[in-house]
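so my prof wants the structure for this chain in the tokens format not the other one, which i didnt know existed until like an hour ago. anyway here's the sequence
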Amino acid sequence: MTLKRTHTCGELKAEHIGQEVTLNGWVGPRRDLGGLIFIDLRDRYGVTQIVFTEEDAVLHAKAENLRAEYVIGIKGKVIARGEENINPNLITGEIEIEVSDLVIYSEADTPPFEIKDGIATNEEVRLRYRYLDLRRPEMQQKLMLRSKAYHAIRSYYHEHDFAEVETPVLMKSTPEGARDYLVPSRVNAGKFFALPQSPQTYKQLLMVSGYDRYFQITKCFRDEDLRADRQPEFTQIDVEMSFVDEEAIFEHHEGLLKKIFKETVGEDVEAPFPRMSYDDALNTYGSDKPDTRFGLEFVDFSEIVRNAEFKVFSGTVANGGGVVGFTIPGLGSMGRGEIDRWTDRAKKEAGAGGLIYIKMQEDGPLCSVGKFLTPEIVNEMVEASGAKTGDLVFLLAGPKPAVLEQLGHLRLMVGEAFDLIDKKAFNLLWVTDFPLLEWDEESRRYHAMHHPFTSPKEEDMDKLDSDPASVKARAYDLVLNGSEIGGGSIRIHNSDIQQKMFNLLGIGEEEAEEKFGFLLDAFRYGAPPHGGIALGLDRIVMLLTGAGSLRDVIAFPKNQRAQSMMDNSPAEVDVEQLNELHISLKRTLK
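here's what i got, hopefully its the right format
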């Protein structure tokens, strides 16, 4: 018999005292006080304390057999807790249920870890028993927030006349940087589908088809090395719009993010979001996804030290490198031993060649390489840094852009170590004006910074032939607290420009036809100007919940070896299945 619940375990309050109620849930902590048995009954909505008395001996005896994670249903009367027993940390903390009927739906073995928050259990064990891990309140809260985000996203786009259209999961392999997951076709021997790295070509085809505002919440797949913020399959908010420029994309997605923040964590974020060029982001923060929740902006000392006798500085600048640093307020008293430890960290963790410092002491600046510099140069560096008495300046010297990247890592390390980052803040930022192309020394050719369909800026069109490295793209990234949560661009819709782009990327006509012929053919029949964006839903939810990994906001994630510990996938398949697919496996070399 299944009892039909009247309430969840997270809603009963003092106003319900005296009512007869029915609850269903899982048995949590139990306290047996002899004549009274107290149990915390749990579901995804919360916890309610229930109590069995000795007035009903049969019911009391039945309750004595209840163990952790048994699934039960109860009927009973809502009664007030004694004043001294009220739990202010629970919505239901003023009441308890005096049980009059008990149904045990299923018994449970002792779980491999406690079903509670804050457990120190190895993640591999949690992933092996993911269905138990998902019972824990902190995990359920994360997934419930994710569910709210889905609702906000769909609501926003439908309110703004976007059509929700599904695109294929089995598609043609068109490598976009990462490896494709391939799916063999049984009925087309020797041929393969690919799982989409993104619906890029399909959403552009939808623009050709006249669906001027498209979105979908879709799965994407990339067979790449994993880390905390990557998964082999991930969820993307995919968007494309016709007859738009960058401003339209920004305006709509600032509105979307405002709605997501408000309806998930109750935060009002201000729009329009700040904007920063790619070059400014690198030169100011050493990253194209800067964390702007704290300062430590870079100062370039290169011109000041260009003619210094200290060859580490002047030689670096002469070779096109830079001498760059940032000021840390209030740390001028840092001792030599601690600075040495920071030097080691800068080398090991940031890849720097060494760390130079200026300590702002009461009697004047103390520079670690001051004996190689004139007092005038040191004072000019201090003035440029804006450092005051009691502050500390860290500097790195080396080739650009490597030294900027190294200093960017060091900045984040310092921010974390000295608690400079406002962990409660949500700082959103558009990064714009990316280079269209990046040069790859190994292959000796250009690669698209974003993808081959990204449009150059109109004012740079004439440089495609003469100076392609200087061409800026109509591309943009959306950054939240130092993490890229989305990126997109205005697309190329002119076939001549698209062919120039392919030529720059070393993609000949035959290869272009083989990989993208269907899209190029479609453009011949009238393609509107269009652009779009893709937002990483997993990453957004990770940042909203403060989770340390994407795995904590995905119901059934893979581990860092792209394996599911719970169902042991990927797994071997029968030879018969391989034969049907016309596949034979190479003998593994040992």
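also thought this was worth mentioning. The two ends are 57 Å apart (CA to CA).
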